[in-house]
């Protein structure tokens, strides 16, 4: 909410400009007036406190922030999930570590075409030989860490060669990671990964604070194959029913 508030200038909503402004965009009190709520209450919502905003209030805030459909759904998910996230925190104030696993039935569905399954933090949980062929640096790792799509895209120079349209792909990957991070406030996995990406990539450092969000979608991707040159691959994404944050991505056979 803060990131979106800072994108709206006073002139955009009919307010006078002021030379005294020390922060970009609208002030909290200005946003609160435009949305029809108290400044203190709006501040609590923006800070993620347990104030349980109604659908009407969320809609008013979303209208004022000029959120798109995906951003509105994300705001609602954050509001609905906040109380549950707080209840899941242990008395010590930390959550137990999460290790994602893939149901044994899922790998059996991975077709001969390039395919892989990603988890909440963009870890690549399972992949087939075709994915290793088309995205070699992604899955052929020499260290003990799981392959991670975001880490490969931003920190491995080979990704910029393999992905013809690297910038748009990278922005999409980071936006999906940002979306999942918003659903897991306080989760150390996301904090560590974001810090690593921002430390190693100027683009990730610049884009992360923008709070762009996105979901998986069908589309196409241009890649450079080691021996076949530049190819355009259509792809589709499928959510695993028993683990909604795990996504099976399948590319069309080239």
From TrEMBL:
InterPro entries: Cro/C1-type_HTH, Lambda_DNA-bd_dom_sf, MLTR_LBD. SUPFAM superfamilies: lambda repressor-like DNA-binding domains. Residues 1-22 are annotated as: Disordered. It comes from the Bacteria. Coiled coil: none annotated. Residues 1-72 form the HTH cro/C1-type domain. GO terms for molecular function: DNA binding. PANTHER family: BLL4672 PROTEIN (PTHR35010:SF2), BLL4672 PROTEIN-RELATED (PTHR35010). This is Transcriptional regulator.
């Amino acid at each position: 909410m803060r990131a979106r508030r800072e994108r709206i200038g006073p002139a955009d909503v009919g307010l006078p400009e002021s030379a005294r402004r020390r922060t970009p965009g609208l002030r909290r009190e200005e946003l609160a007036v435009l949305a029809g709520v108290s400044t203190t209450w709006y501040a609590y919502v923006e800070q993620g406190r347990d104030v349980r905003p109604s659908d009407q209030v969320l809609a008013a805030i979303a209208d004022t922030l000029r959120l798109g459909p995906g951003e509105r759904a994300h705001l609602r998910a954050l509001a609905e999930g906040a109380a549950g996230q707080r209840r899941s925190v242990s008395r010590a104030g930390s959550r137990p570590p999460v290790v994602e696993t893939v149901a044994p039935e899922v790998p059996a569905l991975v077709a001969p075409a390039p395919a892989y399954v990603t988890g909440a933090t963009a870890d690549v949980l399972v992949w087939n030989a075709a994915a290793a062929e088309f995205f070699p640096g992604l899955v052929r790792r020499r260290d003990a860490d799981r392959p991670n799509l975001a880490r490969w895209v931003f920190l491995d120079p080979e990704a910029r060669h393999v992905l013809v349209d690297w910038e748009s792909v990278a922005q999409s990957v980071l936006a999906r990671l940002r979306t999942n991070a918003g659903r897991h406030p306080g989760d150390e996995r996301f904090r560590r990964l974001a810090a690593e990406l921002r430390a190693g990539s100027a683009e990730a450092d610049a884009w992360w604070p923008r709070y762009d969000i996105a979901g998986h979608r069908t589309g196409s991707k241009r890649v450079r194959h080691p021996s076949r040159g530049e190819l355009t691959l259509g792809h589709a994404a499928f959510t695993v029913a028993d683990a909604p944050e795990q996504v099976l991505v399948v590319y069309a056979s080239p």
